[in-house]
Amino acid sequence: MKKKNIIFLIIFVVLIIILVISMNSRYWNLKTCDSECKHRGYDVGTCRWPSEMSEDDIEIGSCLIPQSKHCGNKDQCNCYCYNEIVACIADAKICPDGTGVGRVPPDCEFESCPESKVCEIDSDCIIFGEDGDCNCGCYNKDALPQDSGGACFCAAPTSCECVEGECVGVFE
């Protein structure tokens, strides 16, 4: 009975030692650092010197990359997670009402133009939507809303006129 207890105790101690060593020697490489950062919800993970860290970076542990001048030694550099910053071209699109809109990250598409009811003559104005739709009314034909947006109990006009530079609905 004592012999079985001693063998069990030795196996248990060896397993504890292996567990402690593996927990204390967890080092990231470029691939595992990036993968873990993405798993945590960040765009990128990379190994670099602590002096290269920016204030938005999150450190998750040490990196060790064999044959690397940058991260080749124990505790030399760390795995940092961060989100990439998307910069869009700083150009503008001029909307029908004369305002300008810029591009919006992450896809850098132009912002939607504001809805405009600006007009010069009656033919600039058209009816948008039907009775019961959201956004129904008179709009400049070049600046219509994106969609009717579903049921809103809106009453669509029967015609449109340009009154003092604004498209106005006429209900007969």
Feature tags:
3-stranded antiparallel sheet; 2 helices; alpha+beta; about 170 residues; about 20% helix; 10 strands
Task: Give the gist of this structure.
The protein is α+β, with helices and mostly antiparallel strands.
Q: Would you write up a description of this structure?
A:
With 172 residues, this protein is of the alpha+beta class. Among the domains are: 24-82, no CATH class; 116-170, no CATH class. Helices cover 19% and strands 26% of the residues. It has helices at 2-24, 30-39; strands at residues 44-48, 58-63, 77-82, 92-94, 100-104, 109-110, 125-128, 137-140, 159-163, 166-170. The strands form 4 sheets. The chain has a 3-stranded antiparallel sheet. A 3-stranded antiparallel sheet has the order 4-5-6, with no helix packed on it. A hairpin with a 5-residue loop joins β4 (92-94) and β5. The longest helix has 23 residues, at 2-24. It is elongated and about 105 Å long. It starts with a helix and ends with a strand. Residues 19-25 have low confidence and may be disordered.
Q: What would you call the structural class?
A: alpha+beta
The overall pLDDT, averaged over residues, is: 79
Radius of gyration: 32 Å
Distance between the termini: 103 Å
Shape type? elongated
Count of DSSP-assigned helices: 2
- Helix and strand pattern: HHEEEEEEEEEE
How many runs of DSSP E, i.e. beta strands?
10
Oligomer state of the chains in this structure: single chain
Q: What characterizes the major β-sheet?
A: 3 strands, antiparallel
Instruction: Classify the helix fraction into a percent range.
Output: 10-25%
Unreliable segments of 5+ consecutive residues: 19-25
What fraction of the residues are assigned to beta strands by DSSP?
25-35%
Question: In what order do the strands lie side by side in the largest sheet?
Answer: 1-3-2
